[in-house]
Amino acid sequence: MEVTDVTIETALTELRSRTGIGLVYSPDLLPPDRRVSCECRDRTVREALEILLRDTGLTFTATATQVRIIPVRTAVGNPGKGSVAGLVVSDSDGTAIPNALVELGDGRGALTDEHGRFLLLNVPPGLYHLRVSGLGWDSQERPDLRVAAGETALVEFRLIRRVIPLSALVVSPGSYGILDEVRDYALQTLTRKEIETVPQLGEDVFRSLRRLPGVASGDISTRLYLRGGTDREVLMLLDGLELYEPYHLKDFDGALGIVDINAIGGIDLHAGGFPADYGNHMTGVFDMQTRAPPPEGVRTTLGLSITNASLLSQGHFGSGKGQWLLSARRGYMDIAFKLTDVNDDINPRYYDAFFKAQYQLGSRHLLSLDLLQAGDHLWLNTEEIGTDAGVGELETNWDNSYGWLTWKAYLTPSVRARTLASVGRVTRRRVGYWEELGRATGPEAVDSRNLARFSFVGLKQDWTVDLRDRVAFRAGALVKRLFGDYNYDSWTRTLTADPAGDVVGVYDTTVVRMEPTGTEVGAYGSVRVQPFSWLTTEGGLRWDRFSHTGDSDLSPRLHALVDLGEGTTLRAGWGLYHQTQGIHELEAPDGETEFTPSERATQVALGLEHRFSGGISTRVEAYNRAIHRPRRFYLNLWREVLAFPELDADRRRIDPTEGLAKGLELMALREGETWDWTASYALSSTEQRIEGVWVPQFWDQTHAFSVTVGYRPNQAWNITASWEIHSGWPITPELYVVDTISVFQGDGTQWPMWWRGEFGTLNSIRLPAYHRLDLRVNRRFQLRRGVLDAYLDLFNAYNQENLRSYGYRLQTLNNHLVYVRYGDETLLPFLPSLGFRWEF
Architecture of 168-499+515-733+827-839 per CATH? Predict the structure, then answer.
């Protein structure tokens, strides 16, 4: 082998291909800006590696089957002490084992990072008893590890997989693993590489979930409608804390999530049948965990796209016992709007920043601090336009602030506890006015001022105990104090005809002043039992109480997992789920001043999974969810993005008496070196009984199919195509009633000068089927310093005109006003975007 002035990764790849050795390493270990040369045609593999790794801070260990590159570090801060560096990997295939507990025997310890690495610094010289244990792995010990002053002891542990503890099994149906490459006991649907290469707008993880069966979402909005439930019915968690308003640009129905995908290390999505650990939500759980920072060095990623600029930086402190992570993002959605037909006078901006610091206290305690700040500003001014849409001005601001402290205690290998103290605040300010021009179907003028605040302080604790190999117990409790503040004013002037035929203005005002407070208390317990090797059962009970509504609810849940052998697993679940109206969810702009009782849903789900020998994983799942005591809600029938939705003429209050969501979902995926693909299909129905009639929900899509195909010809290129089609969403037909007013023209003819808008039966017609193709091309460049990823994203590649609603207008025909369909409202057109990500 002979290489000249190439990156270390290129040289190692060449060495591996030339010699056929099992060379194992993490790319994150390699200095990205280091160039090497080696005339190694007549040298051994050991000699070649010594040349390539010289002065890099890396070394290598060799076994009978492979050569592994690991870091070598001398003691930091005290030359009279030493250090211990090593790797923890699987004995079967050599893959890294993250989050393994490393204990030195003198109270020192660390957790391995996502690449299986660990580093213990400033260790006094002596003989130590080193022990490594991990969830689902047999522990190993090194009883006579010698550490010398000024030197680094290099160790490697190869752990043997054992039966996964009951507490770690995914028993409930409808669970998906996203980004989480650690666990192999849940269906892994989206890896980090796939998230970074799948076509999407805004670099947002929510948009990637459209490929999963049972998930409905719009072009602009990222709100998740999961198995027929609204987005408010999905519990959003970040490192164990509930996020109450997890979307940016809420005036555009939530265009992006407030957490940058680059900061996320894993996601557990429970689409139904989730266990008693989670409460006060009826439909699902979206549980995000942030990335584990590296135990040494600093890694930085800079991103730039047409919608935002981002920064991610990770590092360590405290002699390796502490790690930190910083993520920041600034959005420029106004630029993206200028590439479409959206008006230039809309100026939306957003930002978010996340910081995490964690510190290892001894070998069994981990303390972490999380801070999240996000904000939005929208300014809309149409004074100079003067179209039929009207003129006006709108300014809104959203602020989200969260802070929480988490203490994880690994008391014994079978007893673990987590304590979380949190505080947060969400604020919305909106002010503006609007005047309609030429449309006499609703308010001719509106003026609104809205200030809403919500804050909380809480404490939560969870315990996990593996009593024996066949029994596990989980329990927890929380208490949270809630504070609300509503200050809302609005007035409207609506033109109408009085009995004499004159056009007059009718005024209406809404004023709400409230400062509700409340206390949330919850507790749960669940027991898992494995009476046979092929059967695992779980019974759980949850209790939740909210003082501001007076709700006190018990939610029993039962789940079972049956191992049918040969890669086939059956999961079944039944449960009762409650959801209380939050203090922040009062519809004050609609004049509501009282909270409604909690909603209740009974859900049954049954799922079957099978993994074929060719690398194909499949799942089929059926579910039925009956909703009792559904909450009343308000709906805009025109399906428009409006400045003041609560004041528009199409606003309607909906009072359902019960609901039903049912469906059948199929999914198959295959991961390969060059090609991978995912396909899903869902047959579903989502209805509510309204005034004695079953009515489909506006996000109901009877049939939905999607397929994503990825092609990687080499390590530099990645091409992904994603196509989807689903049944058209239901809408309400729009009607106009023409009234004749006693107004005569100069020639003596009478002219009908007034009309009023009406609507037909709710959601009684459907839009045409929705379909769209997205493409993405990624190219990776190896630079002297770091790696540069460039991507081209083609949204709606063949420019399909998907409809958002039908448009109608009045026109004159034979001296009569007639109502005709004209100018249908469409969703986003073809939209190209270009982005870069530089990691160094």
Answer: Beta Barrel (2.40)
